[in-house]
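Allow me, if you will, to draw on your knowledge of protein folds for a short while. I have a record of one protein: its chain in single-letter code and its fold written as discrete structure tokens. I should value your view on which stretches of the chain appear to form regular backbone elements. Thank you for your consideration; the sequence and its tokens are set out here:
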Amino acid sequence: MASFPQFALTFLGLLFCVGDVAVLGFLLTWQERAASPAMRRQRLVRGVLPATALLLGLLLLAFTQIMLLWSPR
């Protein structure tokens, strides 16, 4: 039977995942709002790609932790 801490950690993990996706959306919007194509490319290479790699890694880690939390022992 599942306990309250298990549900609470799952809720926090899912909330983290939603926030992570929102930050990814903000990054893409920020990159597209640059004044020139050269500035958009610079933002993509220097900001969006490294941040996206980091955020997707954290998203994968969060999903893995949630699955491990609910796996039978």
